[in-house]
Amino acid sequence: MKIALIGYGKMGKTIEKIAVERQHEIVLKVGIDNQDDWENFPSDGADVAIEFTQPSVAVSNIKTSIDKGIPIVVGTTGWYEEYETVETYCKKKNGALIAATNFSVGVNVFFALNEKLASLLAPHDSYNAQIKETHHTEKLDSPSGTAISLAEGIINNHPSYDNWQNLANAAKGTLPINSIRKDDVKGTHEINYESAIDRISIEHFAKNRNGFALGAVLAAEFISGKTGIYTMKDVLNI
User: Fold this and answer.
1) What average pLDDT does the chain have?
2) pTM, rounded to two decimals
3) Topology of domain 105-205, per CATH?
4) DSSP 41-53
């Protein structure tokens, strides 16, 4: 499979390593200094594109890939207020897209556990939920896209919450997300349900970037040759 890497920072380099180990070919590497290479890239030059850049350019990169007829896997977060517009564009152009706040296999299992736990505790209003996420200081968005996905998973399965707020403490009915930034933390997400008598917690701790990169390559393998809009649930059959 021929892969175009849109974004060649730390994550892009990790994706390259894993993709090559899985016998794929990297045919394009786009960094901040050669964005034009992506604009001028031929439509038949790659089987799939993997995009890990910044929110300010993600939508443009996605539309370029759709215009070229190249399926795209998107790991950039912070642009999801434009997701419906991109979704409409992709369907109109008969493109192929997988966008995820986190491609890690472990995190996507964690998403499913989070939804199940929320539904189990929904009848028990003595438990108050909170999300805590910790990342490296270079992370641009706060809360993390993964934390937002976790919050949405709780809100959709627990009637006590109808929105979230990026605060350690929030008003009743609002799910608090406590965002912490520390040096050299790849990503930790913790869900806590606290009552007067006990606490129930689940946690995902990322040891390195390899899990995110492997999941992105798995998504690329899944979407290559397809059209339509998919999620990591489709990729992992969750």
Assistant:
1) 94
2) 0.81
3) Dihydrodipicolinate Reductase; domain 2 (3.30.360)
4) --TTS-SEEEE--
Low-confidence ranges of the chain (pLDDT < 50): none
Hey, where are the domains in the chain?
A: 2-103+210-236, 105-205
- Residue in 24, 68, 132, 135 annotated catalytic: 135
Please report, for residues 11, 106, 157, 174, the alpha-carbon distance to residue 222 in angstroms, rounded to integers and kept in the order given: 20, 18, 28, 36
Report the Cα 79 to chain-centroid distance in Å: 11
In 3D space, the residue among 130, 74, 133, 139 whose CA is nearest the CA of residue 101 turns out to be 74
What is the C-alpha separation between 237 and 220, in angstroms, rounded?
15
User: Please, are residues 193 and 121 in contact by the beta-carbon 8 Å criterion?
Assistant: yes
Clarify whether 139 is annotated catalytic: yes
pLDDT digits (tens, 9 = 90+) for 86-111: 999 999 999 999 999 889 999 999 99
In this chain, the answer to whether the domains covering 2-103+210-236 and 105-205 adopt an identical fold is: no
Spatial distance between the Cα atoms of 116 and 162, rounded to a whole number of angstroms: 17
State the pLDDT at residue 87: 97
The closest alpha carbon to 6, from 69, 48, 42, 43, belongs to 48
- Contact between 72 and 224 under an 8 Å Cβ cutoff? The reply is no
Check 24, 68, 139, 189 and give the catalytic one: 139
DSSP assigned state of 78:
S
> How confident is the model over 141-179, as pLDDT tens digits?
779 888 999 999 999 999 999 999 988 777 788 999 999
CATH architecture of the domain 2-103+210-236 equals: 3-Layer(aba) Sandwich (3.40)
